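User: I'm writing a tutorial on reading structure tokens. Could you give me a worked example: one chain, its sequence, then its tokens, then a sentence or two explaining what the tokens reveal?
Assistant: Sure. Here is the example chain.
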Amino acid sequence: MKQLQYVTAGQAVMSVKSGDHIHLSSVASVPHILIRALVERVESGDRLENIHFHHFHTEGPAPYSEEKYAGIFFDQGFFIGPNVRANVNAGWADYLPVHLGESQLLYRSGSLPCDVAMVQVSLPDENGMVSLGTSVDASVAAVEVAKTAIAVVNPNVPYAYGDLIPLSRFDFLVKDDTPLVTKDFAEPTPTEVLIGKNCAALVPDGACIQMGIGALPNALAAQLSDHKDLGVHTEMFADGILRLIKKGVVNGANKKIDRGQVVASFLLGSQEVYDFIDHNPSVLMKDIKYTNDPAVISSNPSMMAINSATEVDLTGQISADSIGSRIFSGTGGQLDFVKGAVMSEGGKSVTAFASRTNKGKNKIVGFLNPGAGVVTPRADAHWIVTEYGAVDLFGRSLQERARLLIGIAHPDDREMLEQQAFERFGPHIRLVKTW
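And here are its predicted structure tokens:
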């Protein structure tokens, strides 16, 4: 039997070799103590090169993406957060496009090496099992296949039920008591409140919902406070969902699988959210393979997938990972949930966003900006929501879609979009009626 012993972070990262691919637990639970130790090893003169990092979006410092470590570290994240965005777009780091539901498959299939898994875990239970807490995502797969697995055992990592790992699986154990990163999201703007209301009108009582993190999802959650018997099956949730749970709006009573339980794969929010999932059997933190499987998603009736976009063109092509050629975030699980929702009995796929950016640029466009990535193809576009209304593109032709989308664009942009539609589709567009 393996003898489990704790070592320092510096001792643990001595296992990293040139050419290794490293997986990091992500979002709120990045193992910064190990990253700092690896940087210190390099700074002390150890010669390492060509070390690749893979992860979902990470909070906090990201030295592995910086120009100063070019040739030593190279970041290739599955989803891009603000801390690496500038370096990715400058070429010092990179983005690895993948549906988040398939990120685990990269490791399990061997398509992407995983030499070292660096993750944070909870204190072990009486059976020697630990939880990945707020960052299960692809970390379960990474730990399974890694040649070397390093666990930072942190009492601040909540023990969340769902997919657990035996502590004996790890080759090195490191102690740390640094609190997890928390995030307070701004109160919704008046525009976001209107979008939230338009989305909420599409959600029936008893629905199962998926939505992301940020001011807009929280605005939607606030508008669901009078609903009944909602369920949650999602990649992630934050304080908006927690408030609905505490009000009894979310109880999972209508779910066909995981009835009465909130299912997610990673979290980012207040300390209250992290405390809530600790030893709470009503929450399951699961492998992204499970949460993002369209077949699993569709098993619950009235599944509502609510996602966002950076741009939508007049035919319904949805860009969400980029602004033109500039990578902004990632594919995420948008298409995973779009597919699952439309397969669900009574389900809906909803894409919600403000009609204009904070700088006043229109987000409903005649043509996507050059280089923009299509995350959801036009054939998969269903409900589109802005502060000016909601339209369903399913079963609509290109010209019909254009008319519908112009109707929920910012009023000051509609004449321009009318002209672009005329140039694109010809004079008949002026005769097209929508219903």
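What the tokens reveal: The first helix runs from residue 9 to 12. The chain has two domains: 9-175, 190-431.
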